[in-house]
Amino acid sequence: MSRNLLLISTSTTHGTGYLEHAEEEVKALLEGKSSILFVPYARPGGISNKEYTAKAREAFEKWGIGVTGVHEYDDPVKAVQEAEAVFIGGGNTFLLLRNLYANNLVKPLRERARKGMPYMGTSAGTNVAGKTIGTTNDMPIVHVKTFEALELVPFNINPHYQDPIEGSTHMGETRETRIAEFHNHNRQPVVGLREGSMLRVKGDKIALLGPHSARVFLQTEKPMEFKPGDDINFLLDAY
């Protein structure tokens, strides 16, 4: 596959504006491109598709990239087929995946991104790039007919990964516990992507970028930590 992906844990980190922490990586992904198609389907309330697209447009226009929202087209499939690049923003992953299927966009997104169209996601948009959405942190506020996602990479991603807080009196499950539960029923690896971190996939190569290490979970094995610069290409051979 000629993949060209930027999978970001979050759109905004503490003390930065929208996508500012990933500016250099976004520019590298979109080198030579003048436009990007934005998919605002993930927001469950509080902001309209128009308003969400305007927020993305403000960020990209500073970098000389024009933004259109997929909802602005009469034929969203054609919009994806003709897009120079695609960006799927964050929100609720269940709602996002339902809307992608409802608009028949899963197949064209998968086909174009696998053939090299630049694809970037944040949060829910990163989660749907994986094999399934089974490791999202979101509430299932809507019904989806399947958890099967875009399958741009053969593993799952847990955006916004949080480590246990030492000394905390919280008695609920940690992220690590929930991912272990996932692995009781599913065998694909899971990458816990901390805030400010991202995965860059080019063809058959993958790299961890950003200030933090990532926590990688393999079924029946102890979790492993990988720093930016470490070799994590084995993740693309998961199946």
UniProtKB/TrEMBL annotation:
This is dipeptidase E. Gene3D superfamilies: 3.40.50.880. Belongs to the peptidase S51 family. It comes from Pontibacter ummariensis. Its EC number is 3.4.13.21. Keywords: Cytoplasm, Dipeptidase, Hydrolase, Protease, Serine protease. GO terms for molecular function: dipeptidase activity; serine-type peptidase activity. It is found in: Cytoplasm. It comes from the Bacteria. Its main location: cytoplasm.
